Amino acid sequence: MEAGRKAHLATAAWACTALCLLSCAAAFSHGASPSACTDMVPRHLRAQLHSPRNNYVTIHTNMSFYAPGDKVPVTVRSSRDFMGFLLQARKVSNDEIAGTFVFIPPGSKLLTCFEDGDTVTHSDKSLKRNLSFVWKAPDQPIGDIKFFISVVQSYFVYWARIESTVVAQRGQN
């Protein structure tokens, strides 16, 4: 009788652990958590950060300059598949998140970190390689900006804060 009870408890403990792990994994399969807004680091258990210099992802824009209110196309390109991402535009002067995204591709969704639509993340864990976005600059001057992306290749491997070249605000001294 005692052996049967121990087996039952062991099975219940295993089921509880499995459910906890599945719920943690499922939470991130639908996008980054707002807790990643500031440092852009995924909150996966035992996730391993890789150097941004050794990544396979690049952020491109065909504009070197922008003016307040402009819409800036942004393309993320990768030589390998990845599952998750977090994309933001940030002011060069103080690293604050700036502007909003007005076009996002399928498999992604807007996230509010400080302002509605200032961040984009994945909405599913389908494999991604090339993604196109449109970012809208605020109507007031904010200075030069850079785009930053964190990419999750798998639940355990990610790159944080891969950056674009500077997009300068036109007419700024």
TrEMBL record:
InterPro entries: Ferric-chelate_Red/DefProt, Reeler_dom, Reeler_sf. GO terms for cellular component: membrane. Keywords: Signal. Residues 1-27 form the signal peptide. The keyword RNA-binding does not apply. Residues 22-173 form the Reelin domain. Pfam families: Reeler. The keyword Ribonucleoprotein does not apply. It comes from the Eukaryota. PANTHER family: CYTOCHROME B561/FERRIC REDUCTASE TRANSMEMBRANE, REELIN DOMAIN-CONTAINING PROTEIN 1. This is RELD1 protein. It comes from Alectura lathami.
